[in-house]
Design a protein that fits this description.
InterPro entries: AB_hydrolase_1, AB_hydrolase_fold, GH, Glyco_hydro_5, Glyco_hydro_5_CS. By secondary structure, this protein is of the alpha/beta class. Helix content is about 35%, strand content about 15%.
Length: about 700
């Protein structure tokens, strides 16, 4: 396997010390920072960072702390001040443009957490993973460390396996020794660390039960009372370097076990699948957000998963049943940074910058009006849209714009599968906000178990159907959306990738299942883009429509166009003309509706918190004219913006315009709730306190039909 591209940087910290760090993976992915143990370089994580299955899912920055590896020497007490370590971390974050990374620290690398909590803003981290980690130096090292770790030991004092692991991890790179006494004597203030824990900073501990270098339970005794969102896993290994029990050091021995499980793609043993079905479902999302494999192992990594690592022992002796119950808390570790994770939807769009905390500046001065169309008159608009709703995301997790969805990455947004309370969200949206439609995205690969052309997997469909039935139970309409961007693993349907027959077979099976459900809507495909031949794409859509109708389903079918089915380009890129040729088997166009998306940020990427347009002049007015002149209708199934004042203003204007043209615009669906955390830049998931749900700003002040009064 070839080494992925890496970027190494020598970074100048605030006191002039040079710190070396190296990044691997795509910056579009979630961000993690890897800190090695005392005296070692970030090279101990090289095997992890060069594994293709992970560097495609995360952006990993491995660090040589000051005085270690390739960083500048740190020979004085002054150079080891706590604030300098915090400044080093801050410089690394800026140098690599990191957004709320997760700190993954091995051994005394964990002391960085105390430095960061003390000197940097509370929003610096999304969470922390300790691999046999110690959260501060000073007296804790004296109390936790076994005698051999308190004095720099020669290689002969290490076990053979420990030495081999370190050699394999570090390769041929130079590792500096360090003055342990000077490091451990540095003063660290723990008050803010405790505050961070009490305020909910997630912390995951992974320790070897037979660690020969530290008394790991002492660290837990200190920290567990401080961190209200903490999980612990003890792995039956003997080394301080938490590794799996493989003899081949060139393969897996240098992986911390928590990483190894992730890269193995969930190595279930046959007898364990049925025994731990619920655990399996909880664990499946490892690939969905990339780094979530690190955070969520705290609730998913059960005995079956860690069998290759010598087994896992729950600290409560009950195989960690209690950890499964709190899945949603560990998930928030990653979802807190999901202003970046929107790239599982649109990583290849015009831009995907990191985002900061939601801005609160006033929007541009505008007057809230209801523009009128200049198009020729047609059937009189009612002034009330037929549909308004929210995307309930989760089964689409792991899907990129290349259409390389992974079945194991889907995460059902239902509590019975250890997801968010999608059922409660939908019930709230219907009863309190007046919503009447939900879009339920799902990856094609998930439904067929990653087998192109294969039949739908009954067990997977049962899980997806649980969400569909939950949606139907609210009385709302439910859009089944295949979230593959017109692709299967970056190959375009009907144009060198899956055949139209394979695509039609998928839709035939889905339609047959839901043909008798009048409130089901079929969303043929999410956001096709970069389609070489729009007319060939229309042929693929026709194949799906014919299959759906031949299965006996007569409900609405949504027809998507090119350029992420953007409302602004729907006419100019030929989508409208090509899709106008798609017909029902009888030659008519009843219940065939154009599917269009439009966000309100500067580049229509749906990645920025602020909004700059109401889309009327550049998108909706031309589209309304075309629809009315050609006797067609469209449904805006993705739209949204940040929870800021500018988006409230512009969203109200957009919805008002749509409501003024209800003869051709059916409604809107916001992006997104479900398994997204409310802190997500386009988050529309409500929060619950007791029995009370609270909407996000954009929903409460613009998108809720109870607020705008523009939905029938």
């Amino acid at each position: 396997m070839s080494r992925p591209p890496s970027t190494g940087k020598y970074i100048h910290s605030a006191d002039g010390t040079t710190v070396y760090a190296e990044a691997s993976g795509s910056h579009l992915n979630p961000h993690i920072v890897l800190i090695p143990g005392l005296g070692l370089s970030g090279a101990v994580f090289d095997e992890f960072c060069t594994d293709e299955r992970l560097f495609k899912s995360v952006y990993a920055v491995r660090v040589d702390p000051r005085g270690q590896g390739r960083s500048s020497p740190a020979t004085t007490a002054e150079s080891h001040l706590s604030r300098h370590y915090a400044e080093d971390f801050e410089a690394i974050v800026k140098a690599f443009d990191l957004h709320k990374p997760i700190l993954v620290a091995w051994s005394l690398g964990g002391a960085f957490l105390c430095d960061i909590a003390t000197y940097l803003p509370s929003f610096t981290l999304s969470g922390c993973v300790f691999l046999a980690g110690m959260s501060w130096a000073q007296e804790l090292l004296q109390e936790v460390g076994r005698p051999e770790v308190l004095v720099p030991s020669p290689a002969s004092h290490r076990t053979t396996r420990e030495s081999r692991a370190l050699r394999c991890a570090a390769g041929s790179r130079k590792i500096r020794s360090m003055n342990v006494r000077r490091f451990s004597a540095r003063v660290q203030h723990r008050e803010k660390l405790r505050v961070a824990g009490e305020e909910g900073l997630p912390l995951l501990h992974v320790y070897g039960t037979k660690d020969g270098h530290q008394k790991w339970w002492v660290t837990l005794d200190y920290l567990k009372p401080w961190f209200r969102d903490t999980e612990v896993h003890a792995i039956e290994v003997t080394l301080h370097f938490v590794v799996c029990s493989h003899d081949d050091c060139t393969k897996d021995v240098s992986y911390p076990c928590i990483f190894h499980v992730t890269v193995q793609g969930i190595p279930w043993h046959a007898k364990s699948v049925t025994e731990t079905r619920g655990i399996y479902m909880a664990f499946k999302k490892i690939g969905a957000l990339g780094i979530v494999g690190l955070s969520a192992l705290s609730v998913r990594a059960q005995a079956a998963v860690y069998a290759q690592c010598g087994g896992i022992v729950g600290l409560d002796g009950r195989h960690n049943l209690r950890f499964r119950i709190s899945l949603h808390r560990a998930e928030r570790l990653l979802l807190a940074m999901s202003s970046r994770n929107r790239n599982h939807q649109r990583a290849l769009r015009p831009s995907y910058p990191p985002t900061s905390a939601p801005i609160t500046s006033d929007p541009p001065t505008t007057t809230k009006t209801t523009p009128t169309s200049t198009a020729p008159s047609g059937p009189a608009p009612s002034g009330k849209l037929k549909f308004a709703g929210v995307n309930i995301s989760g089964f689409d997790f792991g899907c990129s714009t290349a259409g390389d969805c992974h079945a194991s990455a889907a995460w059902p947004p239902l509590t019975q599968y250890y997801g968010m309370d999608g059922a409660g969200q939908m019930q709230h949206f219907v009863e309190d906000d007046g919503y009447n439609v939900f879009r339920l995205p799902v990856g094609w690969q998930y439904l067929v178990g990653d087998t192109l052309g294969g039949p739908i997997v009954d067990a997977n469909m049962a899980e997806y159907d649980a969400l569909v039935q939950t949606c139907l139970a609210t009385g709302a309409s439910c859009i089944i959306d295949i979230h593959n961007y017109a692709r299967w693993n970056n190959e375009i349907i009907g144009q060198g990738g899956p055949t139209n027959e394979q695509f039609a077979a998928l839709w035939s099976a889905i339609a047959a299942k839901y043909a008798d459900e009048p409130k089901i809507i079929f969303g043929v495909m999410n956001e096709p883009h970069d389609i070489p031949d729009i007319n060939l794409w229309a042929d693929s859509v026709q194949a799906a429509v014919t299959a759906i109708r031949n299965a006996g389903a007569t409900q609405l079918i949504l027809l998507p166009g090119n350029d992420y089915t953007s409302a602004a380009q729907f006419i100019s890129n030929g989508s409208a003309a090509a899709l106008s040729k798609v017909v029902n088997p009888d030659g008519g166009i009843d219940n065939l509706v154009f599917d269009v998306h439009k966000y309100l940020d500067s580049d229509n990427s749906g990645t920025h918190p602020d909004c700059t347009t109401n889309n009327i002049d550049e998108a909706w007015a031309p589209l309304v004219t075309y629809l009315r002149e050609n006797g067609r209708q469209a449904f805006n199934t993705e739209t949204g913006g940040g929870n800021v004042a500018s988006c409230v203003t512009y969203m109200n204007q957009q919805i008002a315009y749509q409501a003024a043209n209800t003869d051709v615009i059916l409604g809107y669906v916001g992006w997104a709730a479900g398994n997204f955390d409310p802190s997500y830049v386009l988050g529309e998931a409500p929060t619950k306190s007791g029995n009370t749900w609270t909407d996000t700003l954009l929903v409460a002040e613009a998108m809720s039909p109870a607020t705008n009064g523009l939905v029938a």
